[in-house]
Amino acid sequence: MTAALNRIVVGVDGAEPGRAAVRWAAACAAERGLGLLIVHALHVEQRAYGGGLAGPAPWFDVLAADGRRILDEAVEAAGAAVPGVRVDTLMPTDSPVAILVDVSKSAAMVVIGGTGKGFFGEMTIGSTASAIIAHAHCPVVVLRGRKGTTNYPDTGPVVVGVDGSPLSEKALAAAFEEASRRKASLVAVHAWSDVTYDDVYGMARLVTQWESIEGDERRLLAQRLAGWQEKYPDVAVERSLVRDRPRQVLLEWSAKARLVVVGSRGRGGFTGLLLGSTSQALAHHAECPVMVVRPRPAR
């Protein structure tokens, strides 16, 4: 962790899922010795002047007052959950996407609620969530709870999707760190039936017997895990090698996990995870928080 990455960022909208996200992010920040930045975007460009407001100044004053109330409630929620946590607030007039992507440059993590209202309300079900995950400069955590609630589990394993891509390696690093911090076991999921064998191994691979392919994929998974298991000997690891779509496997594990970790894109079965059906399924239906690991641009 560099000195610049000294905070966790969380977006709020005034709804309970946002306050629950603040409590989760505050605990995460305190555990890491980091500060917490709470962001509420006024999103002025999408507001209208109607509704009996007298003009631009009164209209903005009402909007800003409501924003300050939302931030005050969020700060109170953070302090109640983790007394003494360092909290800053930010209330920009820009789009929440633009500001969260910008502040992610100096953040260790961006946290957004899995449900909500207002301008953050579509964050996990539409273009806003996809944009943040697509452009953030740090890992993004979408907080999903059991059966669509804000009951974020604190038991169960950390589950990570493994496909052998460079971002999958970053996801493994993050998953092992999270499992170690939480004193949790780790489940490494490799859905090998979707791997594009003609791209990776050549056309001859297409006629190889499934048993041989499975053996190769099992060795690939073992190789990817070996170094991390040596670095984190305290983390018990379970390997899950399956002939299935990663979306279905990860969703099933999310009902038992405390956190699912994936790279923002990969090869084979995890290609398209960022904006495709797998990411959408996790954002809509996962029953635990989902961490999407992003590549951090070189400075």
Following the backbone from N to C, one meets helices and strands in this order, namely EHEHEHEHEEHEHHEHEHE
CATH superfamily assignment of the largest domain? HUPs
What is the CA-CA span between the terminal residues? Answer: 15 Å
- Quote the average pLDDT: 80
- Number of beta strands: 10
Question: How would you classify the helix and strand content by structural class?
Answer: alpha/beta
Question: C-alpha Rg, in Å?
Answer: 20 Å
Q: Count structural domains.
A: 2
The share of residues in helices is 40-55%
Strand order of the largest sheet: 3-2-1-4-5-10-9-6-7-8
* CATH topology-level name of the largest domain: Rossmann fold
Q: Tell me the strand percentage band.
A: 15-25%
Q: Which spans have pLDDT < 50 for at least 5 consecutive residues?
A: 48-54, 118-126, 194-200, 202-207, 266-276
Tell me about the biggest sheet?
A: 10 strands, mixed
CATH architecture of the largest domain: 3-Layer(aba) Sandwich
Shape: elongated
Overview features:
Universal_stress_UspA; 10 strands; 9 helices; 299 residues; ATP-binding; single chain; 10-stranded mixed beta sheet; elongated; Rossmann fold
Explain the layout of strands and helices.
Elements: E1 7-11, H1 16-32, E2 35-39, H2 56-81, E3 87-90, H3 96-103, E4 109-113, H4 127-135, E5 140-143, E6 158-161, H5 166-182, E7 186-191, H6 197-200, H7 210-231, E8 237-242, H8 246-254, E9 259-263, H9 277-285, E10 290-293
Helix pairs in contact: 1-2, 3-4, 5-7, 8-9
